[in-house]
Amino acid sequence: MNAIPSVKLIDGKATAARVLAEVREQVDTLRRGGVQPGLAVVLVGLDAASQVYVRNKVLRADEVGIRSLEQRLPSDTSQAALLDVIDRLNRDPRVNGILVQLPLPDHIDEHQVLQAISPLKDVDGFHSENVGGLAQGRDVLTPCTPSGCMRLLRDACGDLRGKHAVVIGRSNIVGKPMAALLLQADCTVTVVHSRSHDLPALCRQADILVSAVGKPRLIGADWLKPGAVVIDVGINRIDEDGRSRLVGDVDLAAALPYASAITPVPGGVGPMTIAYLMKNTLLALDLQQQAAQRERTACPSPC
Ligand code: NAD
Q1: pLDDT per residue over 116-170, tens digit each?
Q2: Is residue 6 pLDDT above 90, yes or no?
Q3: Pairing of strands 243-247, 67-73
Q4: pLDDT-derived band of residue 1, with 50, 70 and 90 as boundaries?
Q5: Quick one: which of 183, 168, 190 has its CA closest to 248?
Q6: Strand segments (E) across the chain
Q7: Which N-terminal stretch is annotated as signal sequence (predicted)?
Q8: Would you tell me which of 126, 154, 174, 251 could form a disulfide with 212, CB atoms 3.0–4.6 Å apart?
């Protein structure tokens, strides 16, 4: 076996705490200037996991001083009623970020709902204007999970330029935006998915391996190039030794002798997602202030 650098577990909890402390500091400064950022979280229905996610997001917002506004709607809410709520939040100056918790009930057209959110308040980065902006390398709101992964990667690797990154998974929420962000950071990017041939061989080329699949311990030792940095986005609940536990897409014990740094599950990528939601709320406020400034410059007197 090649000489392998000593393995470092990437502590997502500690990094998320640092990101949240940075956000808190910026919020304090804004509030001293009379501005309090606001985040609206919309939940339709009673999905148990979604309720936990929403509660955690609201709690975290409160902790960093962001005003949270929770909109809980019954599961039989009509498309029109939900669009009305979004329209009201788009026009509410106290709201800088709008998040609609997914999944939505089956009778709701998810795409139409996400497109209804103002791109400047779209803290999930799912609006096609932001998706397009990311593809073009413009300064836009980008999805929270891949943004959090980028922070972990920059901390672990420093300069990412020229590194070969392999992303497993091509979802709109993780895989595709992750690939776009890595490309923006000057990585050489390969995206592999359920129809790719010989995944282990493709993944063995990776200096950086990001897995967003949702299959417990899919990735074993023979998928890794020695010294690779591994970001495991997968969250999978399994029953093992008579108890229920969370594991990632990567077989951590098998990967440890090969990786130079790796995120554990839980405690790796997960905490970064909420931290970047808070960071995105501040970025949204900043983008809104820039847009208002541009409008004032274009039209100095009321017109
Ligand atoms: P998804 O189901 O939308 O996409 C999964 C992707 O994996 C697809 O593109 C598919 O082509 C690919 N895939 C499926 N089977 C494969 C296989 N055998 N080999 C290679 N590729 C395969 O899922 P998603 O929303 O992108 O989420 C992926 C995982 O990340 C899930 O476990 C999810 O729970 C987790 N997740 C975690 C966070 C977090 O905050 N940590 C956030 C979002 C998603």
Answers
A1: 999 999 999 999 999 999 999 999 999 999 999 999 999 999 999 999 999 999 9
A2: no
A3: unpaired
A4: very low
A5: 168
A6: 8-9, 38-44, 67-73, 97-100, 164-168, 188-192, 208-211, 229-232, 236-240, 243-247, 261-262
A7: none
A8: 174
Task: Return the minimum-mean-pLDDT range out of 141-150, 284-293, 294-303.
Answer: 294-303
d(CA 276, CA 154): 15
| Angstrom distance (rounded) from CA 202 to CA 205 | 6
Task: List ligand 1's pocket residues with C-beta within 6 A.
Answer: 145, 168-171, 173-175, 193-194, 199, 212-215, 233-236, 269-270, 273
pTM for the structure as a whole: 0.95
For residue 3, is it within any domain? Answer: no
Is 169 annotated as belonging to a binding site?
yes
Q: Are residues 147 and 199 both part of a single domain?
A: yes
Both 153 and 249 in one domain: the answer is yes
Q: How far apart are CA 200 and CA 204, in angstroms?
A: 6
pLDDT in tens, 258-270: 999 999 999 999 9
Q: How far is the CA of 93 from the centre of ligand 1 (A)?
A: 35
- Which 8-state DSSP code applies to residue 222? G
Query: Which residue is listed with tokens 């950022």?
Result: 37
Residue 252 CA to ligand 1 center (angstroms) comes to 17
Domain count, the chain: 2
167 and 115 assigned to the same domain: no
CATH number at residue 90: 3.40.50.10860
* Per-chain mean pLDDT for the chain: 96
Q: Which residue has the higher pLDDT, 82 or 302?
A: 82
Ligand 1 atom closest to residue 175's alpha carbon, by position in its atom list: 26
- 221 and 259 in contact (C-beta within 8 Å)? no
Residues 160 and 256 in one domain: yes
Q: How far apart are the CA of 213 and the centre of ligand 1, in A?
A: 3
Side chain identity at 107, as an amino acid letter?
H
Catalytically annotated residues: 57, 101, 124
What single letter denotes the amino acid at residue 113? V
Q: Is the peptide bond before 266 cis (omega within 30 degrees of 0)?
A: yes
